[in-house]
Design goal:
Blueprint lengths: L2 H11 L6 E4 L4 H10 L7 E5 L2 E5 L3 H21 L4 E2 L5 E3 L4 E3 L3 E4 L3 H4 L15 E5 L9 H7 L3 E5 L4 E7 L2 E5 L10 H14 L1 H15 L5
Parallel strand pairs: 8-9
Antiparallel strand pairs: 1-3, 2-3, 2-6, 4-7, 5-6, 7-8, 9-10, 10-11
Helix pairs in contact: 1-2, 3-7, 6-7
Length: 222
């Protein structure tokens, strides 16, 4: 293990919850070695953009919101019969583009059938997630949008602690839209409403309310 990797690991070990470590000049080989060394550190998020490395240690509330959004998507799948495959915060990277990122959670919807049974996703032959989710209560994720656009992610959901936003990819940028591409009946307003409700009424009650809302608002099953 190189001296640089040892230094990185020491810095990560002392990274407090809610903090972000930024390193401006890291080689692809160092990035891949670091990912391997971080196998036993599933809580941190690592992104890589042409030599720039960011390592973030999320706060507990960060995980709370991410898990609730996952529950909402599972509810949509159950209620509407839509096939959904999740890959959580798996690392998606592409060496030839020098890009890599770990979303807070992610889903395959339109491309779900293509990755069923695959334990490893290779972006040279496999599609990226159809939806990635970023929780911005710890730090902002807008700097990662360039990475997601480069590897072909079509849709991003971002929650900043107060409001949810939905973005669709247009060439190499993302445009804010009112509703999801993967789940057209799901709007950013509804996503915001039920996340906020989960804070005051609890996740179980908010999830039950969301299921009722979805039954009355969803257009059709896929």
């Amino acid at each position: 293990m190189s001296t640089e990797i040892v230094d990185y690991m020491d810095a990560i070990e002392h990274l407090p919850a809610g903090a972000t470590l930024r390193l401006p000049s890291v080689s692809w080989e160092e990035y891949e070695t670091l990912l391997s060394d971080l196998t036993d550190w599933p809580g941190v998020r690592v992104s890589y953009d042409d030599g720039k490395l960011e390592i973030m240690s999320p706060l507990p509330e960060h995980e709370e919101y991410k898990d609730f959004i996952y529950s909402l998507v599972r509810a949509i799948s159950d209620e509407s019969g839509i096939t959904v495959e999740t890959r959580g915060s798996a690392t998606f990277r592409q060496k030839r583009k020098a890009k890599g990122a770990e979303p807070d959670t992610c889903f395959y919807v339109q491309n779900a059938q293509r990755i069923i049974g695959k334990r490893t996703i290779d972006l040279e032959v496999d599609p990226p997630p159809d939806v990635v989710v970023e929780i911005d209560t710890t730090n902002e994720s807008l700097s990662k949008f360039n990475i997601y656009a480069a590897v072909g992610v079509q849709e991003i959901w971002r929650y900043d602690g107060e409001r949810a936003y939905i973005y669709k990819r247009a060439d190499q940028v993302y445009l804010e839209v009112a509703a999801s591409l993967a789940f057209p009946s799901l709007t950013s307003d509804a996503l915001t409403e039920f996340i906020e409700q989960s804070k005051t009424q609890g996740q179980t009650a908010a999830l039950a309310a969301f299921k009722q809302w979805w039954r009355s608002h969803s257009t059709s099953a896929s």
